[in-house]
Design goal:
Elements (H helix, E strand, L loop, with lengths): L1 H4 L2 H12 L7 H8 L5 E2 L2 E6 L3 E5 L5 E10 L2 E13 L13 H27 L3
Antiparallel strand pairs: 1-2, 2-3, 3-4, 4-5
């Protein structure tokens, strides 16, 4: 959680979220979420949490974020980071699930940003601090 939400890339997003009034976006807020002392961070709310993973959502949106850290099977002294970002379809039922048009149009940018963000988190994790 710390490597992800406190990476140099996400610190820029935190500034935007703060300007938008989306709640606590400080390093202390990241630490509270990582340590299980908070169930909210910026626009996200914890949906589910276990020792090695957390699932977050942005309420009233299709945005979900999943983070997990496990020992790497090929080298126990290394850690494998997992990240999932989903835009949950809004229409379910007789018709095929669909994303809202605004999310569909920006999905390409979301995918690129997610890769950049995960790379920054992995680098921060590898260094221990930034």
């Amino acid at each position: 959680i710390d490597a992800f939400f406190d990476s140099w890339v996400f610190r820029m997003e935190r500034r935007v979220l703060a300007l938008a009034g989306k709640g606590a976006t400080t390093h202390e807020g990241v630490a509270a979420l990582a340590e299980g002392r908070a169930e909210r961070f910026a626009a996200w709310v914890v949906v589910d949490r276990s020792v090695d993973q957390v699932l977050l959502e942005v309420p009233s949106t299709p945005i979900r974020t999943w983070l997990r850290a496990l020992p790497a099977s090929e080298s126990p002294d290394r850690t494998r980071l997992y990240f999932g970002s989903a835009l949950v379809p809004t229409s379910i039922g007789a018709e095929a699930p669909r994303l809202a048009a605004g999310f569909r149009r920006t999905l390409w940018a979301h995918k690129i940003y997610s890769r950049i963000l995960l790379d920054a988190a992995a680098r921060k994790w590898a260094r221990g601090t930034e």
